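User:
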Amino acid sequence: MTLGSGDGRIPITAVQKYNARSAVGIEINPQLVQESLSNAQKAGVSDRVDFLEQNLFETRCDF
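Assistant: Predicted structure:
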């Protein structure tokens, strides 16, 4: 999980380069969440990366 994931580089790289099964990015800015989703799709990892539009101080994850 990456908090404040911005444009999604860290979660995307985690699954591409380090073969993580999945990754979750948390970002409060809705435009960056959309950009992250687009970047994951372009990178071919949208099935293993997800981005949540949430405040990191209020995030609850049940994985």
